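Input sequence (138 aa), recorded before submission:
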Amino acid sequence: MGSELKGAMQNTLSIFFRLGYEDAKWAAPWIGEIDPYQVKHVSDTRDTQDLRSLPNFPEQYEVWTKKLTSLKLREAYIQLEKRAKIQTVAISFYPSTANAIEQIKERYAYILLTPKDQIQTKTVSAPSSRLSRTRKVS
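Predicted structure, token format:
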């Protein structure tokens, strides 16, 4: 995605359906929430104090990248004031719908297009002087 398009994305409503890895990696900072205090691992040994291992930002973004690449059909994340995971409604596709679409396409083709057999083709011959080639002799 070009930098101009990325800049324009700041002025849009962010809705992310399942993405490929590279797109999900780009989208993770937009949709993902990073918690600098999230605990990754707690070491509980007697000879040391309670040592906490905190995941760094790239690790947390990678979690969001995986979430965005593994969304199911019709699932998406949407960013309004807060982020929410949504599921769109199922839309049934019936063969009768396909027939209706074909009828609409045929009707508009009849109204807007000219049948092939009614198109007159003209052949235009180019002036011979423009077609002649000159060759440099060295």
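Checked by second reader. The chain has a mean pLDDT of 77.
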